[in-house]
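> @MW can you paste both from yesterday?
MW: sure, first one:
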Amino acid sequence: MSASDPLDRIRPDVRAMDAYTVQDATGLVKLDAMENPHPLPAELQAVLGQRLGAVALNRYPGDRVNDLRHALATHVGLPAGHRLMLGNGSDELISLLTLACAQPGAVVLAPVPGFVMYAMSAQLQGLKFVGVPLTADFELDEAAMLNAIQQHRPAVVHLAYPNNPTANLWDDAVIERIVSAVGEQGGLVAIDEAYQPFASKTYLDRLGRHTHVLLMRTLSKFGLAGVRLGYLVGPAALVDQLDKVRPPYNVSVLNTECALFALEHAAVFAGQAADLVAQRTQMLATLAGTPGVTVWPSEANMVLIRVRDAASTFDRMKARGVLVKNVSKMHPLLANCLRLTVGTAAENDQMLAALHTAL
């Protein structure tokens, strides 16, 4: 680059990064991003449309944001002494947590493979990221985690529950020992429950035992991926400090109204989640009996499989009109792995047929 090149003003590490890319799904059955495949019922679409049409777009977000906080607190069952913070999706909450903890020498730690935004947010805020590999069957390596916590004394430890892209819930006793170890050296633990609508357990009932644990959730998997609304729950003293780095109007009036509407019709979305759990059970059974496929248990709306050649299988499935996620390059433990989103019954049938042909 020349001395006058404006790109020189961009940090070298940012220029060296690969941007987060979204696959083009035009004309394809989209089963790559863990979205709820069920649209809002037509009668609710009409009601929501009228409601959004009456929103004061000329005003900054106001009291309705507080209404949403109260509605979410009721929906979650907010523990005593805890508060709730809203984010533009979980991604922003991860970024804000990292920003608030970005002191010189601070470390962010998480099991890997895991959600890419943990490492990306750390890098963008100038923090060191330490990834601790899972075991070969994607369980927490307790000894390695505890050693890494002792060595690096991380400011933040991320634990996804269930994990992405492996879709599993980890052993509760192991999690508690890790949480305790982080607490003993003064760090924070962020439990990421993005896929909670499809999981058999939640950490929420254990949240009140600790003063250093935060819990994050999102309405994306609830059925509102396009709305971009996440929330963080934690001890009031912690959330009060984290809230200081949150932009004052980070959640729009339209996002707020959509989220309030969805919570008022939570039973509809709960029914959709129940359908996806049933579809997941059928998908897992079919995959378990498919030659050439290794499949892992799932507590999310995705299923991780290993095939002989992930790249060619992905390409052949795409040629048959089905888009999944090739995660085989994300981490060595994911060699030749594909991540399949659970869709509708018809979408899953088409996906499984495409997989069978591709194999």
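MW: second:
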Amino acid sequence: MKKIEIIIRKIILQLLLLFKWTKKKSNYPVLDKNSKLLFIRLNRIGDALVTTPLLYELKQQIGCMIYVLASEQNYFIFNNSQLCDEIIVYNKRIKSQKGLINKLNELNFDAIIDLHDDVSTTVSYIVALTKSEYKIGFDKSNAKIYSNIIMRLDASKYHVIDRVMEFCKAFNIKPVSPDVNIKYQPSRESLNFIDSFISKNLSSQKFIFGINISAGSDARFWGTDNYKSLVELLKDYEIIPLIMCVERDLELALEVSQNNIPIFYNPSFDIFSAMVSRLDFLFTPDTSIVHIASAFKVPTFGIYVKYNTSDLIWYPYKSKFDSVTTLEPTLKNVKFDEVKIKFLPFFEKIYYEHKQNS
């Protein structure tokens, strides 16, 4: 059934590109507080997080009504009045498409903005069939459906946030916030939960070093022996190591901990983010958690897979950061000594600065 749906969507996209083209405009929409915008950002949590600086700037400078069409995986990132006024969660079922288009048309948007870097059949279908004078997107192969094109910055040279912020040009604004950065704030309940966890299991008076062992795929698991070596290395410093993971990796975390190091896991993204906000340092192979570290300027060391792509890795936008990157498809051949050589000077600089200031 999924294959049939994919084929149908591809056929629809080709028909849209043939017949549903939009007249290009030389001007952009003139916005005020009564303007109503729809931003489309489906897919993963990280994709949502990197769009938050743009939405924040629009809210701060213009105060217009912002709607976000999000996915079931990332919608909660936008649940913030400083980012948007209403979240519409996309449903993948084909039967829901007509109802969604009808709902969007009833809202009568002044502009629709496709924030996706790549062409999405689903998003193209929605943009093409939703009525709006202005339809804005990056210059890509489905450009016929947009009234206004935003040039894409080179992904091999510019951070993903810099590329997203190019949409500011469509609204005639320039970022004025002193700190353009990812905007995500865990709830007070989540922060209280973490502060309680720290008081019972750690010490807020010491340097808390988070070691995240989980990533989006098994290819980015660095191996228990490597993490054990990292824990052993850290014994020479006055710190509290904390193993962090998702629930499926709990057994691996226990193997690394050997019942000597606290372990933190929680299925709630909000609670997990609250924990990151309390760290003094983060070691991680995963990019989603890196974006949260960036929001709170937590110094971060990453170990990354950059396989078959020239794009920049999604490093923290504002945090102090260093990394080891492999061009192979997994972290399997990234040796501990290779990481240690680069990690140790970076970590010690952060560590001794922290001691001096505390």
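> thanks! The mean pLDDT is 89.
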